[in-house]
Specification:
alpha+beta, 2 domains, 6 strands, six-stranded antiparallel beta sheet
C-alpha cells in the first residue's frame, strides 16, 4: 500500500503555522519585561531615598552599594556634579519608552481613587509673564508674596488655568478634558506635609527637578502657546523677559477639618521658567529651567 505523496508546500505551511505562536510568545515576554521596567522606573525616587537613609545609618545596604561606583553616584551624586549619572540616564530613557509604549497601547494608568492611596492634594498650573531682570533671584516666592515687583518695571501678569474653579466651593467641570490631561502632566503638588526648613526645600527641589526633567519639552510647548495667546490679546505690550510655569496647590485638611470647612491652600510656587529671548548656552541644555526653592534662582537642565 503506497503512502500519499506529500505536498511540496507542506514545510512552508508548517513554518507559517508556527509564526503566530512565536510572535505571541515574544509579545508575552515583552509585556512581562515592560511591566517590570515600568514599575521599576516609578520606584526611582523611593530607591534613592532608601539608599540615602542607609548611608546615614551606614548599614550593610550602603556598604553593598559602595561596591559599585555607578550605584553610589546615582544614589549620592557628588556635590556640584554637572552631569547625570549613568543610572539616572538609564532610568530616564527607560521611563520615556515605557511611558510612550503604555500610552500607545492604552495601558498607562495612574488613578488614586481608592483607599489607601486616595489623593489628598489638588494642583493647577498657572503661567506668569514677567518683565523684570531674569538674573535677579525671585525671593518673593520664598515668602508667598508673589505680588512684589521692582519699581519702574511692568508688574507681572498671571494667567490661571482654565480648569481651576474660580469658586472652589461651588463648581462643575464641563469641557477642557484634553487640556486638563495635558496640564496634569506639567504640574506637581508642592505641599508642606509637616516638613519645615531645609527638609521642606529639599523635598520641593527634588519634586521640581524630577518633573522638569521628565516634562521639559512639554512645558516649553505649553509656555510658548501661552505666550502666543498673550501677545495676540495684548499686541501693544512689549514681550516679557521671562515666562514662568507656576503651580497652585490645595490640600484636604485632616478630619474633622475647619468650621466652616475649607480647602487648605498651600500657595502658588514656581516650577520652571522659559526666557523667550535667551538661547541655552549649549546644545546640552534645554530652554526650560527649574526653580530652586532654597535660593530663588533658576538652574539649567540637561536635555
Amino acid at each position: 500500500m503506497t503512502e500519499p505523496a506529500s505536498s511540496p508546500h507542506e514545510p512552508l505551511f508548517r513554518y507559517l503555522y508556527l509564526v503566530p505562536r512565536v510572535l505571541l510568545g515574544l509579545f508575552i515576554v515583552f509585556q512581562f519585561v515592560f511591566m517590570l521596567s515600568d514599575n521599576l522606573v516609578h520606584m526611582e525616587s523611593d530607591l534613592t531615598e532608601q539608599l540615602q537613609k542607609a548611608k546615614k545609618r551606614d548599614d550593610w545596604v550602603w556598604q553593598l552599594a559602595q561596591l559599585s561606583s555607578r550605584l553610589r553616584d546615582w544614589a549620592d551624586p557628588p556635590p556640584g556634579s554637572p552631569t547625570k549619572s549613568a543610572l539616572t540616564t538609564c532610568f530616564e530613557d527607560t521611563r520615556k519608552f515605557t511611558r510612550w509604549y503604555g500610552q500607545a497601547i492604552g495601558q498607562e494608568q495612574s488613578w488614586s481613587l481608592f483607599a489607601p492611596n486616595v489623593s489628598e492634594h489638588s494642583s493647577f498650573p498657572a503661567v506668569q509673564f514677567r518683565w523684570d531682570d531674569p538674573k535677579k533671584p525671585q525671593k518673593e516666592w520664598l515668602d508667598d508674596v508673589s505680588t512684589l515687583n521692582p519699581p519702574g518695571v511692568r508688574p507681572p501678569v498671571t494667567w490661571l488655568s482654565e480648569n481651576e474653579p474660580r469658586d472652589i466651593h461651588s463648581y462643575f467641570r464641563l469641557g477642557h478634558f484634553r487640556l486638563r490631561r495635558y496640564e496634569g502632566n506639567l504640574d506637581t503638588a508642592l505641599y508642606r506635609d509637616g516638613l519645615t526648613g531645609q527638609r521642606l526645600l529639599d523635598n520641593w527641589t527634588e519634586r521640581i527637578r524630577s518633573r522638569v526633567r521628565e516634562e521639559g519639552p512639554c512645558m516649553h510647548a505649553f509656555l510658548r502657546w501661552k505666550l502666543r495667546e498673550f501677545q495676540h490679546q495684548n499686541p501693544d505690550v512689549p514681550p516679557p523677559t521671562q515666562v514662568l510655569l507656576l503651580v497652585r496647590t490645595y490640600t484636604i485638611p485632616d478630619p474633622p477639618g475647619p468650621r466652616p470647612w475649607n480647602w487648605d491652600y498651600q500657595g502658588m510656587r514656581p516650577l520652571a521658567r522659559w526666557q523667550p529671548d535667551h538661547e541655552p548656552d549649549s546644545a546640552h541644555y534645554g530652554p526650560v529651567e527649574m526653580f530652586l526653592p532654597s535660593s530663588g534662582y533658576y538652574d539649567k537642565m540637561e536635555r
